[in-house]
Design goal:
The protein is mostly beta strands. It contains 3 helices and 31 strands. The relative contact order is 0.17.
């Protein structure tokens, strides 16, 4: 499944720690979407840069090294089929920090990395459920990936584990469902987590282009963002922000432990190669050259204007130890995203409850009022205007839904008329 040569560095495992959460109502994050079109016979990185619409808010009351504990019980079965998730810091010294939740037992959550020094009493957190293969592609392959009798005959989904520097490959086996290549005896894999902020390697063997739409909640705040990296190779989705070039990200922070590693030459620095969303191409390998800024490896040309898009993913080669990288972007507040970001009139929005993938689009679901009329709207990246997507829906009961076929990438909302 390798797209680019990988770095042989070994992963570094960091001890887990914990804190206590006081339960509160889950925040309402803006919805986002990224509609990937994967050409026939190609290999693309598809980033999981959005969370599930299912989340749980809390305030930190204490930090220890025994795990992450909620003072009030999480909703029963909160992590559902994926049995995994992640948390983000919404307010605190490290607002924008995302951390992987590796296991849950009652009120106890174990984290992949230690939050000591990062999360403090009084911080506001939000827990998200990880997407699964079934969530993103359909438990019965409703998106329409090419099925086959084995992985060599089918479209495949590669999942890279940066901690172990190893990959797993999944495919839809004809007549059986989702299977892991080389481990078919394990059975159905539709509940396999596709963790935030992974970048999935989609190998398209089908003879026609395939649209894969990633839709979910935009973890707030959008800037700054801190994402996890391990020593060696990392395939990660670029943080969902409005930054449009590498210089806007501010990834190099002199003297900061949350910076990419800069050096006088690429072999000694962290390197990045972007998988471009709109052009279906890969960028040059770039790195931060000390005293000169962003440069292309080898040619050493100025790379500060390397484009960054909402739908991009990164092949990030970490030369140093495991840790977190801080990324800046243009600020976008949840209220502004859900309301009028320019001079348009205020509107009434309703929370998105969930989504179901389908061929060429996604079904969006919400809790409705019988007899009310609703409209799905999108706001494309770089545009202030909200635009109707499809026809309005008048609901007969309390279950509202609409099948949407968005293109490009941006924000999404449900407006009640």
């Amino acid at each position: 499944m390798t797209i680019f040569p990988r770095n042989p560095h070994r992963a570094v495992v960091v001890a887990a720690s914990c804190c206590c959460l006081q339960a509160m109502a889950a925040p309402t994050d803006p919805g986002g979407f990224i509609a990937h079109v994967i050409p026939a016979g190609s290999q693309r990185l598809v980033g999981v840069s959005l969370g599930s619409f299912k989340s749980f808010g809390g305030t930190v009351s204490g930090v220890s090294v025994t795990g992450l504990t909620a003072s009030s019980a999480l909703p029963p079965g909160f992590f559902g089929a994926s049995d995994s998730g992640f948390l983000t810091v919404r307010a605190g010294a490290f607002a924008g920090l995302a951390m992987t939740v590796t296991s849950v037992s009652g009120n106890e959550l174990t984290l992949q990395r230690s939050p000591v020094g990062l999360i403090s009493p009084g911080d506001t957190l939000e827990l998200f459920v990880n997407h699964t293969i079934g969530d993103l592609f359909g438990a019965q392959n409703s998106v329409g990936l090419l099925a086959g009798t084995d992985a060599s005959q089918a479209d495949t989904i590669g999942l890279w584990n940066a901690e172990t520097q190893s990959s797993r490959v999944f495919y839809y086996r004809t007549g059986d469902g989702w299977r892991e290549s080389g481990n078919e005896a394990a059975g159905d894999q539709s509940r396999m987590p596709m963790p935030f902020p992974a970048a999935l390697v989609i190998n398209r063997r089908g003879s026609t282009p395939l649209q894969v739409t990633i839709m979910g909640a935009v973890p707030m705040p959008m800037t700054p963002r801190y994402f996890e990296v391990s020593s060696g190779r990392n395939l990660v989705s670029a943080p969902f922000t409005w930054a449009n070039k590498i210089a806007d990200y501010g990834l190099y922070l002199e003297g900061s432990p949350y910076s990419v590693i800069g050096a006088d030459a690429a072999p000694d620095a962290d390197t990045i190669r972007f998988s471009n969303f709109s052009s279906a191409t890969n960028s040059e390998v770039i790195y931060y050259r000390l005293g000169q800024g962003w440069r292309t490896a080898g040619a050493e040309g100025d790379a500060g204007n390397t484009p960054v898009e909402l739908g991009q993913s990164m092949d990030f080669q970490r030369r140093g130890p495991a840790g977190f990288i801080k990324a800046h972007g243009f600020p976008l507040q949840a209220g502004a995203a859900l309301g009028a970001r320019s001079a348009s009139a205020p509107v009434t929005t309703v929370p998105i409850q969930g989504t179901k993938p389908g061929a060429g689009g996604v079904q969006v679901e919400w809790t409705a009022e019988a007899g009310a009329t609703y409209q799905v709207q999108t706001q494309l990246a770089g545009d202030d205007a909200w635009v109707d997507l499809g026809e309005s829906v008048t609901t007969e009961g309390t279950d509202g839904s609409a099948f949407c076929r968005p293109s490009g990438q941006g924000l999404l909302r449900i407006v009640k008329h």
